[in-house]
């Protein structure tokens, strides 16, 4: 059964592993590897930021399956997802996106959540559509042809 909890400071190394996963880096808009030192600084900053929501998902007796991050920025709220290699291909992404976005929107019903996905990442695109996100437009984002999707209440 898929469950979620909010990540805490003890999850830093797990998030580092996910952040530097080869497929995650390839699908990221900034595809270079992340140093551990930079990750620790970034993670500690974000985990203490009241505008960043780290949803950590577990499956099969508390095994970490992936994460969804929703970040309220000055002009927009952005969502991202990564799934542990062992749990890919099990149709968990859409469920994780639904659970995280519904929780977030229940707390902030006026917000619009945006997802930026490279057009080459069709698996993520399909998962976001299945999770109730709507295609707003296609555009070049950080040099990559991308889908911009939106979800509201």
List keywords for this structure.
153 residues; 7 strands; seven-stranded mixed β-sheet; alpha+beta; 5 helices
Description:
The chain has helices at 12-19, 22-27, 36-47, 93-107, 122-130; strands at residues 3-6, 52-59, 63-72, 77-83, 113-118, 134-141, 144-151. With 153 residues, it is α+β, with helices and mostly antiparallel strands. The chain has a seven-stranded mixed beta sheet, with helices on both faces. Helix 1 (12-19) crosses helix 3 (36-47). 24% of the residues are buried. The model has no long low-confidence stretch (mean pLDDT 94).
Q: Tell me the major beta sheet.
A: 7 strands, mixed
Q: What topology, given as strand order, has the largest sheet? A: 1-2-3-4-5-7-6
Distance between the termini: 25 Å
The proportion of strand residues reads 25-35%
Helix count equals 5
- Counted beta strands: 7
- Gross geometry: globular
Query: Helical content, roughly?
Result: 25-40%
Low-confidence runs of at least 5 consecutive residues: none
| Radius of gyration from CA coordinates | 15 Å
Roughly what is the average pLDDT, rounded to an integer?
A: 94
């Amino acid at each position: 059964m898929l469950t979620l909890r909010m990540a805490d400071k003890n999850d830093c190394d797990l998030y580092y592993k996910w952040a530097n996963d080869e497929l995650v880096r390839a699908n990221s808009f900034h595809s270079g590897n992340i140093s551990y030192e930079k990750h620790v600084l970034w993670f500690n900053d974000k985990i203490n930021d009241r505008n960043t929501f780290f949803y950590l998902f577990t499956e099969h007796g508390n095994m970490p399956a992936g994460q969804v991050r929703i970040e309220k920025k000055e002009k927009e709220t952005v969502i991202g997802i990564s799934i542990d290699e062992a749990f890919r291909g099990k149709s968990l992404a859409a469920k994780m996106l639904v659970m995280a976005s519904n929780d977030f929107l229940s707390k902030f019903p006026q917000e619009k959540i945006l997802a930026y996905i490279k057009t080459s990442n069709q698996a993520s695109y399909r998962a976001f559509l299945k999770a109730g996100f709507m295609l707003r437009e296609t555009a070049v984002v950080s040099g990559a042809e991308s889908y911009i999707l939106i979800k509201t209440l």
